Amino acid sequence: MIEERKKQVGIFRFGVISDFVNKSRLTRKERRLLLREKCSRKWEIPFSGRTRISQGTIRRWIRMYDGTLESLYPQDRCDQGQSRAMDEDTCLSLKRLKEELPDATVFNLISEMKKRKLATPGICLNPSTVYRFLHHQGLMDNNAVTPRDRRRFEAPLPNEIWQSDVMHGPKVLVDDRMRKTYLIAFMDDHSRLVPHGEFYLTERLASFLNAFEQALSKRGLPRKLYVDNGPAYRSKHLEEITASLGIALIHAEPYMPQGKGKIERFFKTVRGGFLTGFTGNTLTEINEAFDLWLNDVYHQRKHSSTGMTPFARFTDNMECLRNAPADLKDHFRKVARRRVAKDRTITLNGRLYEGPIALIGKQVELLYHEESPEQVEVRYQGKTYGMAALVNLYVNYRVKRDKNNNAQMDVSSGKPSYKSGKLFKGDKS
User: Fold this and answer.
1) Class of CATH domain 333-409
2) Could you tell me which of 338, 372, 369 has the C-alpha nearest to residue 354?
3) In this predicted structure, what is the pLDDT of residue 23?
4) Where are the domains of the chain?
5) Mean pLDDT within 115-131
6) Model confidence pLDDT, tens digit, residues 52-86
7) Using an 8 Å Cβ cutoff, are 185 and 203 in contact?
8) With 60 as the cut, is the pLDDT of residue 411 above it?
9) Does residue 324 contact residue 217 with C-beta atoms inside 8 Å?
10) pLDDT tens digits, residue range 174-201?
11) Which of 88, 268, 323, 383 could form a disulfide with 52 if both were Cys (CB 3.0 to 4.6 A apart)?
């Protein structure tokens, strides 16, 4: 399996076990219930047709995890499958189809399952088997409506969960024209403290990552990050960043705004408590004023839900906070995969770099920041090979190679040492 696939599988596995490896204070009963809940869900497992995960598999991943993402990489892939009358994938599809079509009969459900090709190939749907399964799940009583269990929740400690969202802000003057702003903010679920908030001209991934990096450098690493389902939050780059930092990335359930109630309440406070008094008209002015209001007013005012100021409640349990690593910025680098050409060159974003001789013909990872593309680190199978140097085509043309392909520079002269021939042998002039 190539490195890219291994990394995607490792990120997925970390998302599954993050609740266990980040919360050591779970009781045995809580761990058992959490394990059962994860096994009952349907997952989109990378590079696999399966959608369910067994308890033994989750326990094995927990034992494998040593704090690094690489420890969750799959080794030699070994697929073993067996056919059953009603396998777990078919049962889950049948259950969801019944919830979608509550008035459908057993025969109609079987027909629809075949039409949509939801049953696992080779599985025969027997009416009596389907009925018994749905009856056991309590889905045959069409009049029974199970209410959604929604309860108020609060993280027990600071930096346990961060919420993040975007608020549409006012227009500001940029290059002689008015442009809309977007407030990207993070909130600690326990204390209601805002690690970082800033107005940007876009709500794209680059702006979100800029705010995220500043929040981590100021207040440390959260154990979970709860975000929306927008394109920026579904990017693989964000998944790689959070997984490498040991942060579980959790997406809100679609059409369920209740899960983001705390940060939505904060945005309401921003509109009523900050924007109403803001008098500037540039991006710099609004960010300077917002930072002053955030630290001097909001963080120092007693919160109605907690009875404490956000700053006091956040700092009340400082011993449980995880500091951001010294190489935090390196975790935000983009990763590109390229193959080292036979002449040792690597092409990235229109630039030509020189790669190590030992990696000729190999596919390597190139780690870089978009704002400084000339600084590119070369990595192969988890091992770094240093920074790649930009190729100077003129110098590269003059480099001679010995029989071992080692470079030997000819520095005798910057001019070509061409000597013209003689037209006539007897000409001594």
Assistant:
1) mainly beta
2) 338
3) 58
4) 3-72, 88-136, 161-320, 333-409
5) 83
6) 899 989 988 888 888 888 888 887 544 333 335 67
7) no
8) no
9) yes
10) 998 999 999 999 999 999 999 999 999 9
11) 88
> Residue holding tokens 């990763």?
335
pTM for the full predicted model: 0.64
What confidence tens digit (pLDDT) does each residue in 324-344 have?
999 999 999 888 889 998 888
Beta-carbon contacts of 140 under 8 Å, excluding residues fewer than 6 positions away, are 131, 134
What class has domain 161-320?
alpha beta
